[in-house]
# Entry
Amino acid sequence: MSTGSISSDKIDLLIYGPVRPILENGFSDHFVVHKAETRGDLERLTPAIREKIRGIAVTDHTARVDKDSLSQLPRLELVSSFGVGYDHVDAKYAAERNIIVTNTPDVLTEEVADVAMGLLICTLREFIKADRYVRSGLWQTQNYPLSVGSLRDRKVGIVGMGRIGQAIARRLDASLVPVVYHTRNPSKDVSYKHYPDLIEMAKAVDTLMVIVPGGASTNKMVNAEVFKALGPRGVLVNVARGSVVDEAALVQALKSGTILAAGLDVFAAEPNVPDELKSMQNVVLLPHVGSASVVTRNAMNQLVIDNLKSWFSGKAPLTPVAETPFKGR
Ligand code: A2R
# Structure
């Protein structure tokens, strides 16, 4: 394979998942682009096409790239996945087959941290309810009631202290809110107090902000026991993955007053949100918009494209995930 420029042979790529025109238009004449929006579409590709596909652009976390789908593509070299979380891609199986998986870290870090911070303040200070109050004309009759919640006198435990966790912590520092964190290993990048045990941290704080990857190791790690430890002033903000929180236990904790409130950008079965959550006044619900601004989504799309272009120019992938590090060709 040549270095520095895309080889003269055309490279067959698959764009897999919901339509993203910016991605589809991002490839030059050097590529032949095939599309499969769903698993069914993938299975309907002819064996001759599947045989040729060497790269995949995965457009969304709803497109499952599991062993079954990867097995259908015998010449696959690289899976370029949109988003920083890649729990929808079987990176372990990809590693066994020497397929590189890339994601789109860094370019969304500050955007997601902004949403986390906004969601926290919005939940505590009831912006959504207060907005409705103004629109309904009620302000003409009386002032809006004082909010029970406030960012003042809070202590935040961040669950996950990677790129986004650190960006959230910087915002909390600026707001004079003390921060501690829970991860499996203490981070060398920060000096906040580390709690190896999530329950112990939940007991020591009144606010949890969740920003760990999805997947088996974090599945329902924020559960009834954690809510009990957090206590009646407790607030949960989740901008990670819905799978990280036991949603039924959260509904119960909010209903019973075990915790005070929650701000949620992610849910267990998106786009379905439990009716019980929708009917509650002490929750703020967002439709998974952590990175969803034009500027940040453009940067993420571009990184999906650039990883594929770099690889098929004979260069290293730009952002391989930990399970499939680039070890040379
Ligand atoms: O546990 P560590 O030492 O590997 O720290 C990572 C932590 N983490 C966990 N913490 C507790 N229990 C676990 N089972 C667990 N697994 C991972 O999450 C690290 O501090 C953090 C992940 O950081 P980064 O890899 O830098 O990810 P980034 O860019 O901050 O994004 C986090 C997640 C994505 O995976 C998406 O699902 C979501 O944010 O948008």
Notes: The chain has two domains: 11-104+294-312, 109-285.
